[in-house]
Specification:
The complex is a heterodimer of chains A (315) and B (239). Chain A is of the alpha/beta class and 315 residues long. Chain A has eleven helices and 14 strands. Chain A has two domains: 220 residues, Rossmann fold (3-Layer(aba) Sandwich), CATH 3.40.50.300; 72 residues, Alpha-Beta Plaits (2-Layer Sandwich). A six-stranded mixed beta sheet of chain A has the order 6-7-8-3-9-10, with helices on both faces. Chain A has a four-stranded antiparallel beta sheet with strand order 2-1-4-5. In chain A, strand 12 and strand 13 form a beta hairpin. The radius of gyration of chain A is 25 Å and the shape is elongated. The two termini of chain A are 36 Å apart. Classes of the chains: A alpha/beta (315), B mainly alpha (239). Chains A and B meet through helix 2 and helix 3 of A and helix 1 and helix 5 of B.
Chain lengths: 315, 239
């Protein structure tokens, strides 16, 4: 549905997007993840035909963005980063305006407006002035506007930025509902967002894709190599650390003591389960165990790791 | 075409939403009435000629106030992004915005109909020059709005857009009024410069003449500035 080949974008002397190549299948939900200034918004703006690329090729729904921009744009519903709207218009009036710009006739406009208002929870607000609405409601209008002409591709730039937790949940649910009907590209710097809803995650740093895969795959990549175990026992710091370091498979430990209890963070070989020998060693020494748990690798760590690597590579 | 009119209608509606619009309407109504009262006396010819001549000076400052927000505001609000990602062309955007402002211009000229009515009640005016003068005024307004649309597409700052518009209009009116009178300018050039003067072009309409050449002057001027405005808007994509 979306095909991007060696896409690059220079802003004067600054390189914002660096030789990006990726394909997105029809019906997928893709999460663009990256720190601020990584080139997410620039990439999305190029995909919507708002900005031209410096070099490379991109096509949406089979239409090339340079030569068939108008056709490509008609296949896209776009929610820009800050949800720009006309404050002086009423919600319904604005949606009619957008529908007309998309070339929809009166009948299909009325039908679709009722539909998207229902979907985005705007029923009660149809006659309200946009300028008087809250951030969350404006965001709903932005999403409604993007959905209006039932585009095969939806591009949402930070759809949950600036929303409160309830509103974030609403937006997430809405995106989940849209699964299968549209190809959705969404960008965010919040991981939880893509962890739940995206089929595929692309982590972007400094204009490059630094990691790619399903959220599970990425998580496994983090977990591979070593696992981390947290043990809390009633023992002195030195004694506990000495005993644990001797166990086969343990690579390193760090510990801290609080009120007679020592918490030890054990990094062990990913292929060896060290929980049993550690438990046995504790019993042997007569130390009480208060806690023993696996620290689950989160995408968050992975994200920080890969973006930091990218920064180091540049420095 | 449909989309162009959609943009024009939204533009017109949003013009009426801004307080500047009412200030401009008020000043125009006040200005035209004051100028009219100066020429309105017993035994004077029942024409609007003097009023129109005065008004095109007033328009130098009032028209840019209407046009300054046309594109600038879209830049500033970021709505340009949603506008340019719909399947409409840059030309449609610019022409739509200019047409919307032209609609507003019509509303601005409503007080002039009352002034003509006053003449009709108190004397027997010759309607020919009044109508041709009115057409001329619309063309001058159209040209100024086209210049304003171009200036507005240049910057997201409305004040700068306003000043650029006033500057360009002054070049076409005041500068081209004084230059042809200067002794040191080559006589043929003087003629050419005088021809390019907006006020001189308008005078023909004011006299009651509808001449092809004058209409062409304004239409080509409008087309030129709208074309440059489209190119300016396009160039923002490439920067």
């Amino acid at each position: 549905m979306i095909d991007v080949q060696e896409l690059a974008k220079w802003y004067g002397p600054t390189l914002a997007v660096d030789q990006l190549t990726f394909q997105i299948e029809s019906g997928q939900i893709i999460g663009f993840l990256g720190p601020n200034g990584a080139g997410k918004s620039t990439t999305l703006r190029i995909l919507t035909g708002f900005l031209p690329m410096t070099s490379g090729r991109a096509s949406v729904a089979g239409y090339d963005l340079t030569t068939q921009s108008q056709q490509a744009r008609s296949k896209i519903g776009y929610l820009p980063e800050s949800t720009p709207l006309y404050g002086e218009m009423r919600v319904e009036e604005y949606l009619h305006y957008r529908g007309k710009l998309q070339g929809m006739d009166r009948r299909s406009r009325s039908d679709r407006i009722s539909m998207v208002c229902d979907r985005c929870g705007l029923e009660q607000l149809r006659r309200r002035l946009i300028g008087q609405l809250s951030r969350g409601n404006r965001q709903r209008i932005g999403i409604a506007q993007a959905l209006l002409h039932n585009p095969p591709v939806l591009i949402l730039d930070e759809p949950t930025a600036g929303l409160d937790p309830t509103q974030i949940t609403h937006v997430r649910e809405l995106i989940a509902e849209l699964r299968g009907q549209h190809t959705i590209v969404l960008s965010t710097h919040i991981l939880a967002e893509v962890e739940k809803s995206a089929d595929r995650v692309m982590i972007i740093a400094r204009g490059k894709v630094v990691a790619e895969g399903s959220p599970d795959e990425l998580r496994r990549q983090v977990a591979a190599g070593s696992s981390i175990l947290i043990v809390e026992a009633k023992a002195t710091q030195e004694a506990a650390q000495k005993v644990i370091t001797e166990i086969h498979g343990v690579q390193s430990t760090t510990s801290k003591t609080d009120d007679g209890w020592t918490q030890i963070r054990v990094t062990a070989d990913g292929n060896i389960d060290v929980r049993e020998p550690i438990g046995a060693a504790m019993l042997q020494n007569g130390w009480a165990i208060r806690e023993m748990r696996h620290e689950i690798a989160t995408l968050e760590q992975f994200f920080i790791e890969v973006t930091a690597q990218q920064d180091q590579a540049v420095a | 075409m449909k989309q162009t009119l959609t943009i024009a209608r939204r533009e017109l509606a949003s013009l009426f939403f801004s307080p500047i619009a009412y200030v401009v309407i008020g000043l125009f109504a006040l200005g035209s009435s004051l100028i009219f009262l100066n020429t309105f006396a017993p035994n004077m010819p029942a024409t609007l000629r003097g009023t129109f001549s005065g008004l095109i000076w007033l328009m130098i400052f009032l028209i840019p106030a209407i046009s300054m927000r046309l594109v600038s505001e879209e830049y500033r609000n970021g709505t340009i992004e949603t506008l340019m990602t719909t399947p409409i062309s840059d030309t449609q955007v610019i022409i739509g915005k200019w047409l919307g402002a032209m609609g507003f211009l019509m509303a601005l000229f409503v007080p002039l109909i009352f002034l003509a009515g006053v003449l009709e009640m108190n004397g027997s005016p010759d309607w020919g020059p009044i109508i041709s003068g009115f057409v001329g005024l619309l063309l001058v307004g159209g040209l100024y709005l086209a210049i304003g649309t171009f200036a507005s597409a240049l910057t997201e700052n409305q004040i700068i857009a306003f000043l650029i518009t006033v500057f360009v209009i002054c070049l076409l009116t005041i500068t081209l009024y004084f230059l042809p009178q200067a002794e040191w300018v080559w006589p043929n050039l003087r003629k050419a410069l005088h021809y390019m003067n907006v006020n001189a072009q308008f005078e023909t309409f004011n006299k009651g003449l509808l001449v092809m050449g004058n209409c062409l002057y304004f239409c080509s001027g409008i087309a030129l500035f709208l074309f440059v405005a489209v190119k300016t808007l396009e160039s923002r994509r490439w920067r």
